[in-house]
């Protein structure tokens, strides 16, 4: 898991205190479905702090292993539909924004404009050896309002790579 975790480490902390040689057999010993439903983690919490087990997660979600199969599928379908709707809105916002917006809708719009200039001014930058130019240009093309949390993180990463001069703004 290390390579994928290292890739997202600046965005979110995805390491687990449960990763140890003694616990990994228990953590990974359950069938795939039980692992996906976080059964091991629920059992650990039931032993260590049973009073916390019934507290809902964000969005009033219960433990996945305490949901019915139909309930989990319905929740997953709603989540995917919500993501599809958000992506459609993001694309619609990008398509409806004129090329030269008069005033930035948010502070990141100005930073995006400066980053576009910094990226365009460095066609021979070493980063282009590992970056997909079309994806970078697409990422930087729209307004900040069209960027989700991950795309905003990518923008910040590009800013550090291309040395855009707007770190303190």
Describe the structure.
It is built from eight helices and no strands. The chain has 169 residues and is an all-alpha fold. The longest helix has 28 residues. It is elongated and about 55 Å long. The two termini are 35 Å apart.
Summarize the structure.
With 169 residues, the protein is mainly α. It is 55% helix and 0% strand.
| Total DSSP E strands | 0
Strand content: under 5%
Determine the structural class based on helices, strands and strand pairing.
mainly alpha
Uncertain spans: 165-169
Major sheet characteristics: none
Question: Rg to the nearest angstrom?
Answer: 21 Å
Shape by Cα distribution: elongated
Helix content: 55-70%
Mean pLDDT, as a whole number?
A: 80
The N- and C-terminal alpha carbons lie at a distance of 35 Å
- What order do the SSEs take from the amino end to the carboxyl end, as H and E? HHHHHHHH
Number of helices: 8
Pick out its properties.
single chain, mainly alpha, 169 residues
């Amino acid at each position: 898991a290390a390579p994928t975790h290292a890739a997202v480490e600046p965005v979110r902390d995805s390491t687990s205190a449960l990763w140890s040689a003694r616990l990994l057999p228990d953590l990974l010993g359950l069938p795939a479905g039980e692992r996906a439903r976080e059964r091991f983690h629920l059992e650990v919490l039931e032993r260590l702090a049973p009073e916390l087990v019934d507290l809902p997660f964000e969005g009033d979600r219960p433990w996945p292993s305490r949901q019915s199969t139909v309930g989990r599928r319905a929740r997953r379908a709603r989540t995917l539909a919500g993501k599809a709707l958000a992506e459609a809105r993001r694309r619609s916002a990008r398509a409806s924004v004129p090329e030269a917006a008069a005033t930035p809708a948010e502070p990141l719009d100005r930073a995006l404009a400066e980053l576009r200039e910094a990226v365009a001014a460095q066609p021979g930058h070493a980063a282009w050896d590992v970056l997909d130019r079309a994806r970078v240009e697409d990422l930087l093309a729209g307004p900040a309002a069209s960027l989700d949390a991950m795309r905003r993180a990518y923008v910040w990463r590009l800013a550090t790579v291309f040395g855009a001069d707007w770190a303190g703004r």
